[in-house]
Amino acid sequence: MYACLDMGGTNLRGTWIDTSGNRGEILSRSRPRSLEGTKNALLELIADIRESAPEEVHRVGLGSAGPLDYRSGCYLRPTNMPELEYFPVAEFVQEQTGLPLLLENDAQAAALGEVWSGSLAGSQDGLVLTLGTGVGSGVIFGGRIWRAAHFTGPELGHIHLGFGRPECGCGQVGCAETWLNKQALLDLFRDYGCRVASLRQGIDRLREEEPQARGVMGEYGQRLGLFISILQVVFGLQHIGISGGLSHFLPYCREAVWQTLRERFHKRQWWLPERIQASPDPEMSGLLGAARACILHERDNWA
Ligand SMILES: [Zn+2]
Fold first, then answer.
1. What is the CA radius of gyration of the chain?
2. Which of 191, 215, 192, 213 is nearest to 202 (CA)?
3. For ligand 1, a single-atom ion, which residues have Cβ within 5 Å?
4. Residue 43: which domain range?
5. pTM to 2 decimals?
6. Is residue 253 part of a domain?
């Protein structure tokens, strides 16, 4: 039984999950913008999960925004959580609760979760994009996270997709993230003369079949199709999952994504993926991945 947590800039969420993927209700609390506040919130949430779990919790899995070092369980210099700079979270939680903690980048955790028990359940290989405030990515080969040398996995959201967007958080201009993240989508709604204050309102406009909103989805789908075509040239994976808050828009831009892919690969149709699937529950991707990371860790260490 694991306590699985998901930590971002403003929120800390978590629940218990067992080795079969059974899980409890998601508990959530806001994360104070200080190291002390974060420490307290973490301990409180772990205590609440232990109390609600039907069996004893013996490990904590934490999927988190980074950058972080998953091997040592320590943060590096998190872009949106500067107060957690070099915070050794695994050491802290072990000292305070007696529970070992496994730290994982949130996008890697989401990919692992989707392949284990989400949109790509049943496959061993897959690429998962997490579209939200940023654009996270994870590549799973043989049921495992494919790692890069920079402490996490491939940083596909920072592939160059063209100039014309503001500088990315990573310091480069033209990153896929700046073309496909939440801000990019809100900007598109504005450019098409479609006034929406939030993404939820964007979905409402699409449900009402407003022509401008459909235009937004056509252009967003082309961008996503272009991005996926680049990734397919590199990885050539059959199964592509989409998680994150923007995954709710996939049904509305799916046709434009596929059309772009078919046009770009018109001479090499076999480069097309088999499926592009939205997560059935994007709120759960990272939490399920945190549990799966714990399971794999234990399997490796008992083998
Ligand atoms: Zn970037």
1. 19
2. 213
3. 158, 168, 170, 172, 175
4. 2-109+284-302
5. 0.93
6. yes
Taking CA 103 as the corner, what is the angle to CA 294 and CA 123, rounded to the nearest 5 degrees?
50
Quote the ligand 1 centre to 296 CA distance (angstroms): 30
Q: Are 102 and 169 in a shared domain?
A: no
pLDDT tens digits for range 103-162:
999 999 999 999 999 999 999 999 999 999 999 999 999 999 998 776 667 889 999 999
User: How many domains, in total, are found in the chain?
Assistant: 2
Please tell me the predicted confidence (pLDDT) of residue 303: 56
Q: How far is the CA of 158 from the centre of ligand 1 (A)?
A: 4
232/134 same-domain check: yes
Report the separation in Å between the CA atom of 107 and the middle of ligand 1, taken as the mean of its atom positions. 15
Query: How much distance in Å is there from the Cα of 289 to the middle of ligand 1?
Result: 24
Assign residue 231 the CATH number of its domain. 3.30.420.40
One domain, residues 260 and 296: no
**116: in domain:** no
Spatial distance between the Cα atoms of 86 and 107, rounded to a whole number of angstroms: 20
Q: Which two tokens stand for residue 199?
A: 């993404």
Stretch 35-47: mean pLDDT, rounded?
A: 97
Amino acid identity of 211?
P
